[in-house]
């Protein structure tokens, strides 16, 4: 079940350019966060307010075919804009390589959140620093493949 609607590219040039290059190359290009070498995936979601298709990249935190989406926003005091899109419209597509696939997303807590948070910090240690910079608890959302 693919998402339907008008695509509205990110207003942030670097996000828009990364998503475009990633999709154009089937994941062969623009597949890391800037110059870090850390892999990313591209998430396609419906906009919470507009209903338009939105796309953004997040760190690739994958385990057994599931993905954690870490709503860090670099430790800012507010959640990233995509957070409300995904929580209000929890069906997304994730592209990790050549083909996007369908996923359902839930916010997780407790022991499950802690396991995924540890995996996320192992992939991108700056997440731990981001948590120290903010009073909010950084949300961890889990994307599970739809059947």
Describe the structure in brief.
The protein has about 150 residues and is an alpha+beta fold. It has four helices and seven strands, in the order H-E-E-E-E-H-E-E-H-H-E.
How would you summarize the topology of this molecule?
Layout: H1 13-24, E1 40-46, E2 53-59, E3 62-63, E4 66-70, H2 81-88, E5 91-95, E6 100-107, H3 110-123, H4 126-133, E7 140-145
Antiparallel strand pairs: 1-2, 1-5, 3-4, 4-7, 5-6, 6-7
Number of strands: 7
Rg over CA atoms:
14 Å
Structural class by sheet pairing and helices: alpha+beta
The total of helices stands at: 4
Our estimate of the beta-strand percent is 25-35%
CATH class: Mainly Beta
Which spans have pLDDT < 50 for at least 5 consecutive residues? none
Strand line-up of the largest beta sheet? 2-1-5-6-7-4-3
**Secondary-structure element sequence?**
HEEEEHEEHHE
Domain count: 1
CATH architecture label name: Roll
Description:
The chain is of the alpha+beta class and 147 residues long. The protein has one domain (13-145): Roll (Pnp Oxidase, Chain A). The protein has four helices and seven strands; from the N terminus they run αββββαββααβ. It has helices spanning 13-24, 81-88, 110-123, 126-133; strands spanning 40-46, 53-59, 62-63, 66-70, 91-95, 100-107, 140-145. It has a seven-stranded antiparallel sheet with strand order 2-1-5-6-7-4-3, sandwiched between helices. A hairpin with a 6-residue loop joins strand 1 and strand 2 (53-59). The radius of gyration is 14 Å and the shape is globular. The mean pLDDT is 95.
